[in-house]
Amino acid sequence: MPVSELRDIKDFRELTESLNVLPPDVIVNKINNNEHPFSDNSYFSQNPSVLSSDEFIRCVELYNRRCPEGGSVMDAMMLMQEIMVMEDSDKEELSEIAINLVREMYDVPDTIDLKGMLEQKKSEEEIESCDDNDDDDEISDERKEELQEYVEKRRILNSIVHGCAIHQWTSAYYIVSEELNDINPELIEKYNKTAALVNYWNWMYYFEPMFAQGQVPMLQGINKVNVKEKKIEAYGINFPVLIHELSKGVIDYITTAGVPSEKNNGVTPEELKYIYKTADNYAHEQWHYFFGPTLWRAMLNAANVESNELIPIIRKMSEMNYEELSQFCTNIVFYPDEIGIEEMQKLKE
Predict the structure, then answer these.
(1) DSSP letter (8 states) at residue 231
(2) Rounded to the nearest 5°, which phi and psi values hold at 250?
(3) N or C, fewer C-beta in 10 Å, the chain?
């Protein structure tokens, strides 16, 4: 059932009663009670139960379809190890296929240096971003309140980035199925099961206590965006993860069109670092995977376009202020027929 028809239901359990499984109570209760990390955001707080249940139902259905015999976290880890062995002798070719695929999906111009590597790489910067070190003491509490609108806007854009990546990594490899089958005809079936297992089990563990204890889950991939050098660099432990990270990098690159600056918004470089540090908290990534895919699908539906045609739309969305962006997303997700589709058409024009 469309999200817009369920918008008045606030109970995650009621929304998912057709399923025989639920996430842990701590996740469900945080969603139902609007106690997640984005609870002060005017878009995410509209109805987090609907936003998340839509994606949970999709993940469970994908899991049941691709893994009818079931599967555990250990099964997922073993599959990832199998895939790494299967891909090992063809890493360069697979990396090139992934880069070309993402370029085509999003019409990435040749002027942007798009790099993708099949390897496991730890990012010290990303791991350090999990820490809540108070290195921004020079920014007053009053000023932090003034900067909060930029933090909240960035959180919505981050969910678009993650929603896109999840949308792509469970199926985009079918676009290059002939090339993959030439390398190894067993790859796609392995990808299917791994993607379904990882998506499903991401819902079945609450990761925040791990971060609170200074632990970081296994890093499957990372990406780095350098707008000044027009460079996007991504690493992934397997082909679907590399597509996932390249997609995140491309969409993140596009959203930088709306980054505040000292010239345009009076935001200093130090304040911009604070905005990024607060909004890009790695410990919150799980919540973007819960909420983001529903927003991405709503954007596709409201615009009635393919993924590559969303690029100029995302750029325009990133240039909105926080209130405009929040309302626009609310309208296309919860009120598409009443106003959302009409507003999206105006934006397209």
Answers:
(1) E
(2) -65, -50
(3) C
How far is Cα 60 from Cα 55, in angstroms, rounded to an integer? 9
pLDDT of residue 212: 79
Counting beta carbons within 10 angstroms of the beta carbon of residue 261, is it exposed (0 to 12), middle (13 to 18) or buried (19 or more)? exposed
Average pLDDT over residues 82-104: 96
Quick count: other Cβ atoms within 10 Å of Cβ 31? 27
For range 265-284, the mean pLDDT: 94
Q: Which residues contact 1 (CB under 8 A, 6 or more apart)?
A: none
Number of domains into which the chain is organized: 1
d(CA 118, CA 135): 34
This prediction has a pTM of 0.93
Residues 6+ apart with CB under 8 A from 324: none
Domain that holds residue 236: 3-348
Which two tokens mark 255? 């959203």
**Euclidean distance between the first and the last CA atom of the chain, given in angstroms as a whole number:** 29
Contacts 24+ apart (CB under 8 A), 26-35: 26/206, 27/203, 27/206, 31/290
User: What single-letter DSSP state applies at residue 336?
Assistant: I
Sheet containing strand 231-236, strands side by side: 113-118, 231-236, 221-226
Q: In this model, does residue 47 exceed pLDDT 90?
A: yes
Q: How far apart are CA 306 and CA 303, in angstroms?
A: 9
Distance, CA of 292 to CA of 266 (rounded, Å): 29
Residue 137: CB atoms within 10 Å: 6
Q: Provide the token pair at 262.
A: 């000292």
